[in-house]
Structure formats: structure tokens, C-alpha cells
Design brief:
Helix content is 32%, strand content 20%. Helix 2 links the parallel strand 2 and strand 3. The protein contains 14 helices and 16 strands. It is α/β, with parallel strands linked by helices and 370 residues long. The longest helix is centred in the last third of the chain and has 17 residues. The chain has an 8-stranded mixed β-sheet with strand order 4-3-2-7-14-15-1-16, with helices on both faces.
């Protein structure tokens, strides 16, 4: 089955700015088919880790919230807490980070709700009985919503290859316990030759699973939950993910969690293919974009929209100053898989293919330009 994906470019003129174009895209893509009247509408978005400036501008979410409110919706912006230690690992800190990045009721025109509560323990367990997941632990505010709209910054990711609709929904809507399950196949390893004994990993480990002795870090795997925080904070490339089949399995689990989020309720997806940084917005920095800004896409099919955006990034030439050109300085890589080049140990196709298998969507699409 061929799904429809609508896309608009980023060219503007007087009287037709990007926010105007976003609203027109929503209408052309058929968002009005959803009955919003008096429906609690979760707008799932990544608020961005402070320090990272590639996250989506709050103006975009304000436009979406304003539009659905006109249709009678009761919208709220939402994300779930992170498993790793950081500015978004509990609701008070998470809200502070969101407000700092401009996601507040004054700027966006709707409330901001942390989906899985103060400590990440508020969730609904949704039965799945699928290949990878018996059930999914989804933040209660999202699970209890009548409608889900995902607003996704399309960019690279060091575990899943790229982050788009599936990553924002499957991983992003999971409670802390759900994220633990999703990450549990990827316990890291300490490469001792790189370790300086700086103790940063020890300080930030939420499970007290890393200790430095004789100026070298060691992981207690009986305590390790595979959250990857040590990988994120190590400045010396000593803590590294042990990949094996981790990426493939994580991508499949994310697809099943996404299915749990959207099952039995209307869902609509918007991918912003701009500021296409190599890493997730969970990092507290953003590297130079891999390719130039491409546009904004919308669809009812989360698999098709991600596939279409991958193909658009593939087709584009790499930017000369980007991470990609560190390894390929004489090539523009047009037509090549940028995400595989950036993260060769990832298997992003596994998630999309599994999404097709479980009935989440289709990799075949018709791209309609608005």
C-alpha cells in the first residue's frame, strides 16, 4: 500500500512565511479529517537539552496548537523524562529546560505536561504481545490523550541511525522504565586505553554502576541498565556502546512502542527536515548540519514519512564542513546513505521494515509537494 507524504520547501516571501506554510501543509495533508472537538490532544515534541540549539523552534508548535484549538481541541505539549542523568530526567528539571528553550504556555499558547510524571513512574502498560515487546510502558499523559500529533526534528542518531517520527514516538513517549527496556540490549564497555580516570562517568551514573579505581573506570554489569549516560558524558571516547545487534533490536522495539502510542486513536506526524545535525537533541550541543535544510513533511503514516525524509537526505549532497566530510573530504555523497556513513554500526532500516511487518505503516509513499 502506498501512503501519502506531503512536503513544503523552506522558500518564503512577504505574506508567506514558514508558519503560514506550515499551516497550509497541515490542511493539505488532511489534518482536518481528525475530529478535534473537545479532544485532549498530545503534541509530542522534544524540548531539547539546554545547550543544544538544533531543537525545533517553539513558534512551530505554537502554530500547530493554535490551529487545532480553532478546531475545538484541548492541546498540550508533552515529552517523557529521560533515562540518563541530565536536565530532563525529572519533571521539575524537565519543565525548567523546556521553558528555558522557549516551550512555555505564553510562547506556545498551550500547557506543557511531562508525560510520565515527576520521576518518570507515571505510565500506562499497553499490552502488545509482539515479537520484541509483551507490553509497552507509555507515559500516562500520552496514553490517556485522545489524539497524538508528533512534531519531529529529523536528524542523525548514534543508536538508531536517524531520529524521526518513530524515534520521537517510540522512545520519546516511553516512561523511564520503558526507556530502560528499550536500551537494555546496549550496555556499554570501557576501553581502558582511552580512560583517564576523570570520574565524570562515575559522577553521572544514575545506578552507581561505575567506579574508578587505579585511575580506570569499571562497570558493574549487575547494576548497569544500559542507559548510555556514560557514553554521553565521556570526553575521551572511553565509554562506548557495545553494538552487536543492539541497533537492530532497539529499532524494532521502538517500532512496537510507536504502535502502542498510536493504536486505536487518530495520529498525525510532522517531520522538520532542517538543522539536520548528526546527533540527537538529547545532547547538550549540536554539530554542524550534515546537509542543507530541506523542508517540512506531514503524513498520517509514521513509517512513510520517515522513509521519505531518509530518501530526501540521501539525495542531498553533504555539506563540506560537516562530520560526514571528515572521512570523505573529496566526495559530496549525493545519493548515499548519510546516516550509515555517520553511524556505520546502526541499522535504521530494521525499524522501518519492522513497522511495515506489524502494520504500523508503509515504506512505499507518494511525495506530494505543497
Amino acid at each position: 500500500m502506498v501512503s501519502k507524504v506531503w512536503i513544503t520547501d523552506l522558500r518564503t516571501r512577504s505574506g508567506n512565511n514558514l508558519l503560514n506554510k506550515l499551516e497550509r501543509l497541515l490542511v493539505r495533508a488532511g489534518i482536518d479529517q481528525i475530529d478535534f472537538d473537545n479532544k485532549l490532544t498530545a503534541i509530542k515534541i522534544h524540548f531539547g537539552e539546554p545547550g543544544n540549539l538544533a531543537y525545533l523552534r517553539p513558534n512551530f508548535s505554537a502554530t500547530v496548537a493554535k490551529y487545532v484549538k480553532k478546531k475545538g481541541a484541548i492541546p498540550f505539549l508533552t515529552d517523557a523524562n529521560t533515562l540518563y542523568h541530565g536536565r530532563r530526567s525529572n519533571a521539575p528539571s524537565h519543565l525548567e529546560a523546556a521553558f528555558e528553550n522557549g516551550y512555555n504556555p505564553l510562547a506556545t499558547g498551550c500547557p506543557v505536561v511531562i508525560a510520565d510524571g515527576i520521576k518518570g513512574t507515571e505510565y500506562r502498560e499497553i499490552s502488545l504481545n509482539m515479537e520484541c515487546c509483551e507490553s509497552a510502558k507509555i507515559g500516562s499523559a500520552i496514553a490517556d490523550a485522545d489524539i497524538v500529533i508528533s512534531m519531529n526534528h529529523f536528524k542523525g542518531h548514534d543508536m538508531t541511525g536517524f531520529g524521526g517520527a518513530l524515534k520521537n514516538l517510540g522512545m520519546g513517549c516511553a516512561s523511564v522504565g520503558g526507556k530502560l527496556f528499550l536500551h537494555s540490549v546496549s550496555s556499554p564497555k570501557i576501553y581502558l586505553d582511552n580512560c583517564t580516570g576523570c570520574r565524570v562517568c562515575e559522577k553521572f551514573c544514575s545506578q552507581d554502576a561505575i567506579h574508578v579505581t587505579n585511575k580506570k573506570a569499571a562497570i558493574d554489569y549487575d547494576k548497569c541498565i544500559g542507559c548510555g549516560q556514560c557514553v554521553a558524558v565521556c570526553q575521551y571516547d572511553a565509554a562506548q556502546v557495545v553494538w552487536d545487534n543492539a541497533s537492530e533490536l532497539v529499532c524494532k522495539r521502538i517500532a512496537e512502542y510507536t504502535y502502542a502510542v498510536v493504536r486505536d486513536k487518530p495520529a498525525f506526524h510532522i517531520n522538520f527536515v532542517l538543522d539536520i545535525s548528526p546527533n540527537c537533541d538529547c545532547w547538550d550541543f549540536n554539530d554542524y548540519p550534515m546537509v542543507s535544510n530541506i523542508g517540512i513533511a506531514a503524513s498520517f503514516d509514521p513509517v512513510a514519512i520517515d522513509q521519505a525524509c531518509v530518501d530526501l537526505v540521501k539525495a542531498a549532497p553533504a555539506l563540506p564542513a560537516s562530520k560526514l566530510c571528515d572521512d570523505y573530504p573529496e566526495q559530496d555523497l549525493a545519493g548515499e546513505d548519510k546516516f550509515k556513513h555517520a553511524f556505520p554500526n546502526t541499522d535504521w532500516e530494521a525499524g522501518l521494515e519492522h513497522g511495515v511487518k506489524i502494520g504500523l505503516g508503509s515504506r512505499e509513499y507518494e511525495l506530494i509537494r505543497v
